[in-house]
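Here we describe the complex-level prediction in full. Unlike the single-chain runs in Section 2.1, the two entities below were treated as one system.
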Amino acid sequence: MTLTQILKMLVACILVITFILVTASAYRQHRTISALAKLTDATSSIVTNLAVDELAHVDETGDKYSHVIDPDRLENLTFKREVGGENFEFQISLCYQGSENRTFGPALPENRTSCSLVVACSLWLNDRFLPAKFGVIAWYA
Amino acid sequence: MKQDGVADILAMAFMSVLLILGAVLMHAYSLRPLRAATDRQLELKCEHIYKALETAWVEPYTVSFLRAAAENLVLEHPTVPGPYLRSAMENALGYLSPPDYEISATLTHDGGTLIFNENIGPPSKQFVRSGAVTITGAGGENVVVQVVVRLFSFS
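The structure predicted for the assembly as a whole is:
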């Protein structure tokens, strides 16, 4: 075997190994990205469900106002949800113009991947509808 | 023998180029689901901004931002005076806007247009939510005002 043949063989081996490494790396990245996209969609789903249904203000006649958050309804809220067969925990933040940001629910565990989504909403406070911001930080339970 | 050597080197160079292109494509393609999920979140934000403007009141009045703006466009004597509404609306849009984004609201009726936050630079992307507000006109008839809320991204 000449030196040239050895070099060619070496380069071919390096190419094959690099191909395997690149494919494995792309697969790992794809799985991470898919998990992140799932977490992002789950956060959107939790926010929508809370704003439209679970935290929506209900008046004396029983009419429900979707996208209007009633802070009194936060008292009986559970901060765990199952979305798409996966369990998620979340923390809620609520603030209106001129107020401090208030958080509800468990704190985000350390070193845990999370997704944060803050949306505009109305807040039913002191018999008035105020423009406010409603945020959810969700993570895999 | 010399030609065989050149052919081998060319084949290896071609395989290397293919490998690099494949790696770039594989990594770029895998980011697509995350970008799509982020765009869906921004569409959701736009929807929530529209709903917030539809339901939240212009302090100290008891009329929503969009209704007050529609009244300003259609009625001679609206509940909220024009200059006060503009200031309150632009203040609310600034508050509700996510960081690094801008919101504009446009109301149109019968050739008349009312735009809030119109001096916005060219965005890289925009998300639109349109709807309508129905108010009772001066003659007691129902008047439909078209509303378009735009969320602009500059990143």
